Amino acid sequence: MRDTFIKLHLSILLAGFTGLFGKWVSLSEGLLVCYRMLFAAIILFLILWMGKKLQRLSIREMLKIGGTGFLLGLHWVFFYGSIKASNVSVGVVCFSLVGFFTAILEPLINRRRISMRQLGYSLFAVLGILLIFQFDIRYRTGILLGVVSTALAALFTIVNKRVGKQYTSSTMLLYEMSGGFLGLVCLLPVYFYFFSVESIFPSVTDLFYLLALALFCTVFLYLLQIQALKSISAFTVNLSYNLEPVYSILLAMIFFGEAKELSGMFYLGLGLIVCSVLLQTVDVFRRRNI
Fold first, then answer.
1. Beta carbons of 252 and 88 less than 8 angstroms apart
2. Which residue among 45, 136, 168, 260 is least enclosed by CB atoms within 10 Å?
3. Residue 111, class by beta-carbon neighbours within 10 Å (0-12 exposed, 13-18 middle, 19+ buried)?
4. What's the chain's average pLDDT?
5. Is the dihedral of CA 93, 216, 203, 45 positive or negative?
6. How many domains are contained in the chain?
């Protein structure tokens, strides 16, 4: 179990960098995610092909995994849309609601009773977000997009756990990235109709950022996450990812100068988010809920 939690928290550390790319890459959120998934699929395909570990699947299996990847792609579109509509801190802090959505959605999908214990842990994170923003509605568009993104992230993790039991982590990720890319490409005409874009091709700088995002914060990150999901519950994974905003906000302060003057309520809110993670982690070790 210790190795599993090490992999999980290493993936969370890598996830802390993902929000920053929403500001670094000048492309719109839809194109950013398309390129991210395309480059990740190519990188992973080359790794598996050279290692002779490429696993062929039936059309039905590819569609099933690809559909899961499409959920992930939609989550990323709303996530980066939230960041571009507000800032990195808003986008990543909204992600702390993922435990709350998982505590509700997972029992509904798996047809079991809602755990009041898990819901209680999640409410710590919800209260933390309210304290951080102090009911501030200046970034209401970014917050709304962030909430939708978080609900999609929770749904993805739940579905991913059910679908991925019989496949290797690398195979899952390859077909998820491929399916997500193809699904989003099909939606691009609709996206372009409602949202104007300055360019559909990345600049040299954007290309560098996109490759780094695909390799380190996509391929490596999700391989670690999928491996963790094979041993621990989706709720534990999602709730542990409440630590992602802590890393992202600190990095955003360093690179973008966000939240230069943090109030005591801000630290109290982050403390409640961290507390929700610690409570769930202790509970997992005590109950051996793996």
1. yes
2. 260
3. exposed
4. 85
5. negative
6. 1
